[in-house]
Amino acid sequence: MEQFPHLKFVKKLEGKPRLQGGGKPNPRTEENKNNRQGHSQKLQRWTTEKKEHWKESFDLREQNNLASIDEEIVPIFIQVNPAIIDAEFDLEAFGIEIISEEEEGYIIGASLDNFRSLEEKISDFITSERGSGNIANFWEIFEGNREDWKPKHILSEEMYAKWENIRDDEVYNLEVSIAFAKPIGKEPDSTKRGGETRLRKYREKLEERDELLMQRESHFQDFIAHYGEITSSLVYLEDSIGCEVSITGKGLKDLVVNYQFVFEVSEIEEISGIDGTDSELPEIDLEVKPPNDDAIEVGVIDSGIMEGHRLISPSIKQGNSQSYVDGDTSTADQVTGGGHGTKVAGAILYPNGVTGLTSPYQLPCFVRNLRILDANNGLKHNYPASLMQEIVGNNADISIFNLSVSSKSPHRTRHMSTWSAVLDKLTHEADSLFLISVGNIPFPDIRYYLSNGKEYPNYLQENYCRLANPSQSSFSLSVGSLNGGSFDDVNWTSLGGQGDVSAFSRIGSGIWGHIKPDVVEYGGALVASKNGLNQVREHQSLAPELIRSTLHGGGAIGRDSVGTSFATPKVSHIAARLKQLYPDEGNNLIRAFIAQGARLPNGHFLNPVRSSIEHFGYGVPSLDRVTKNTEHRITFYNTGNISAEEGHIYSLKIPEELRGQGDEYDILIEVTLAFTSQIRRTRRRTKSYLATWVDWSTAKIGESYEEFKDYALKEIEEEATDYDQDARKEMSHFDWKIKARSDHGTVEGINRTNSSLQKDWTVIKSYELPEEISLAVRGHKGWDKNKKEVPYALTVSIEILGANIPIYQSIKVENEIEIET
């Protein structure tokens, strides 16, 4: 048994959390309330204008041979009070379906009844001092024509740049997303009084929703068929449908400007792995033993694997390999230059290479060959969002997937992509963990930046260098790369030194301020020429040692490839080891432990700045820290479920001998929270994308458990609590590095609560330690009205820095009563 295992501690208390927010009423809303007549007249004028313009354009549809659409459903662009876009604000009462949430309270919508419900609410607002109050929060209906606002908000940046030059007779291959949001509430408990009646009505609503979805789907298919064809399967999410289409320019214009439910149109992205070269290292005489029979299997979604490779063969379970390449049933890695999936699989099995290993070497896990890339290392004729659903559905016994495959272009910043949203959905619903490479900046682009005065690493701030799709996924672990060394000679010099971000590694932050990448690993470094030509290439001394496919020649082992593709499987190796230790725990604990055991490189850990987080996320995970402790470090964890407007309290007691006033040791405290939730792709902020979002907070220094619980929970067992506000203001905060506001922490411009993986850390003097460190995990409302529970994992570590003083046993003993046996 491990001498210093992680310890599970129990939740001490539940209650209703005291959440910040609310604040003063919005002045614009208050002004509307005080001017009911004037505000209502403006809204009435705008609705009349919209109806007239829609009627004029609709009457021309038949003579212009445009597809059939419903005259009663009118596209609109509105602005509401941004503070009320949550579960409580229901636009359905106005007869409006939300098609897409934009910034600053703007919403692309569709009036489902030609504004009749909205006009009724406006009339009520004029005549009644009570009721219809949300009309005051209904700020504006945009006066411009659809031709002005819809393309700007619906098209990707690339398509919008081409919009004026779209030709009616040209055919375009695109990805299209349409909205369908018809929530029906939580299934009632049939055992309660009146439950059977409520359950019958619920099922009737469910049938009605399914019928409406089929109608929306059928109408969309007919619309596209008028101009082209749908070329992929349809992907269904909580509030939307996505697919790939082939459509004429005339149809594209009609789709964007007039189709009521479309919220995103973009070009189909090019998706690939990294090409390698031929190299060869001396053959290693290593006896390889297969994994234990009960070892887990990691799915490698890639270009296939050379399954007969003697260093990989014992990790392959015959009969489990699958090919998803269109028209090719082979699962072999046919990519030249040593393959791609073979190198990825090898890095899972041998994260530090083969050289120097002690023989015999037992493989840590099995790998499952799930081939999606063709011989040219590309993904063709496959809709990636649909492909992910198919792979997870076919491999229900796999919980960890390595995806070292991404788009060649940076992720879009408006909505979560369909691909990444599907990964979030699968993570939450199937408890699948995806480890995704953040993508690579092509060498010619790096040379271009250097030649145009943008030095390393400053060029990484260019928009084109942000994370590649789908690594912006909220619940996946996105992995970047850092240099494992440095190089310099007469002709070449490395771009960055050891522990610096790799010159090719795309960086964060992620979408909506997510902390991305989540972590980094050593994926190699690049060298640049000193001859003034800014040539850029790999160098054998800086490339990771990888297992190679010999299908096209070359050695069985080589140092010929660098990239985030080969950093990612090193983290997958850690995830597999964790899953082996905690087979019954979900992906949230795996994510939390990996972040908990990560450290920013060089001096970034103790003195991080914004670029530290953008380059490295939470840093490099250590297998030792991730899976175990030492006598100088102790880690506690727990997993649970929480709903919106619910709070859970945890605490850890600190031994008196560690708090001695005569001693002055540095104590590191690290806290990590990971959670998942249902998602809505039509939303574009973290806290509205998620059905429920979760965060954590801690007591102040010197604040007792009793004081903190009364502050953190405003209600315990339906009894209201109170706390001394003045006394609490006098107490000092822990100096967390990131914090829950972008303007509060040491790292400015980063807010940990924007992410579903929230780590923070602080260093405190031993004599400042309180008797007890108390924490609260809090659930917040997103879009879900039903307060459905979401899963989470919480980890807390305490470590003594720079002193050879054992603390594990004393802290363990102090908290034995709290520890679950």
TrEMBL record:
Quick one: where's region Disordered?
1-49
A Pfam family annotated for this UniProt entry: Peptidase_S8
Q: What is this protein called?
A: Peptidase S8/S53 domain-containing protein
Compositionally skewed regions (Polar residues) per UniProt: 35-46
The residues annotated as the active site are D302 (charge relay system), H340 (charge relay system), S565 (charge relay system)
Segments forming domain Peptidase S8/S53: 295-598
* Family statement: Belongs to the peptidase S8 family.
Q: Which InterPro entries does this chain map to?
A: Peptidase_S8/S53_dom (IPR000209), Peptidase_S8/S53_dom_sf (IPR036852), Peptidase_S8_subtilisin-rel (IPR015500), Y4bN_pept_dom (IPR034074)
Q: Which SUPFAM superfamilies match?
A: Subtilisin-like
Q: Which UniProt key words apply to this protein?
A: Hydrolase, Protease, Serine protease
